[in-house]
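On clarity, I found the account of how folds are encoded harder to follow than it need be. What matters is that the chain and its backbone geometry are given together, residue for residue. The format is easy to grasp once an entry is in front of the reader. For illustration, here is how one protein appears when written out as sequence plus structure tokens.
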Amino acid sequence: METTGKQTTARIVPHPHRSPSRDPMIPPKPPGCLDCLRTKLHLLPIITFTWLAVTVCLSYVLAAINKDTEADFPYISKTANVDPQRAIFSQMVTMGSVLYGICSTMRYLSMKADLLSCSVSRGYHWLNIIGVCTGLLVCLGNTILGNFPTDGYRSHYKAPHYVGATAAFAGGVVYGWIQTRLSWLLEHKQRKTSRIQLVLMIWTTMALLTFGISKVVYEVQKSKGYGTKEGTLRDVYLVSTVTEWVLAFSIAGFPLTFVRDFKASVLRSPRILRRDYTEDIQIDASSRYRLLPFSDILICSDQNL
């Protein structure tokens, strides 16, 4: 090695902890379950829906057993207002939101590949981007409503819950219609998927409208003293609560329509190209070791090199 002024001539040698025999162009196979998720993406929507369904049902069962809510169709949020349901519900909803966000991202990547393979206008690429952003907004809304229950707080602290519910329910419907439009655009590849999504979104939209109208009617009449949910307002109350459950399960189950699409997709791990050649370079004398970014190469300025 030669030293001139403030610069030192060094050689690039392979990283001591990396095997030089592995082909750098072939990404290593992930172990066990990671490889399963990489090659079997269709399991992700199934896991997501199952997790969210178990979250809601578990919270309801615990609340009913502990007699913290009525047994016949309460509002979903009313099942998670006291502990331990509140803690369990908020934690599981947050984890389910992460899964839902991963589904939305995988759907975006899958649709991006399909749109690039055919000649479509640039507007559809932007629609795909809007779609994934809307899906992530649904996830954010779920975490907000899950972590801000309606009971146990003063009235001005209930606003985050209703904001989160609006983002989750209304955003979920918008997200579903965007994905339905994209699937319909690629009808030659996703014919069955587009028809299933269309039927599901008509059903979900009707549930959203019915829930919104009945919820407003019930709250207005209750505030005016026209009755209670156990009395004269029982019918409108049940319409509101039942449609909320239908709406929640419809939005949570929408990723199941991605199963056919994900069966034809494989998630490829990011590649890191490795340079195994030897090269003389100039580095600062103050740097003894430096690892090149995006490589397995260790730059060593040791005098014994």
